[in-house]
Amino acid sequence: MAGLSISLSVSIDKIPNVTIDEGLLAAWLQERLDDARNHFISSCGASPSAPGDFPGVRTGALVGSISVEASGRSGSISAGVAYAGYLASGTRKMAKRKMLAEALDESLSANPQAEQLAQAVRFE
Q1: pLDDT tens per residue across span 67-124
Q2: Count of other CB atoms within 10 angstroms of residue 75
Q3: Dihedral sign from CA coordinates of 5, 80, 101, 119
Q4: Do 48 and 41 form a contact (C-beta atoms < 8 A)?
Q5: Which residue ranges make up each domain of the chain?
């Protein structure tokens, strides 16, 4: 199984009379993805991990493979190790672990920075 990638896009095209500061929007997206990466890495604990927890760190390959890419209104956070998908979905012998989607959700819930996002979008 290949690595795991979670993508996040912001689409505001259908709202009339709106001005979008693309630089602020891109910065908000980059910071939220960086927050998710940092949350994932700091949440990975001792190995073995319990079902439903973030994975344990044995060699550091998983946490070392986490990458973030953002450009404009789109970005992604991904794990570059082949077994990341197994951790995210589980197997017959192993319950799933929290992975990048949960890290993104938890970090957005804890630190949405909605006021920063609101500054990027102006209604006229």
Answers
A1: 999 998 899 999 999 999 999 999 999 999 999 999 999 999 998 888 888 888 877 7
A2: 21
A3: negative
A4: no
A5: 4-8+21-112+115-119
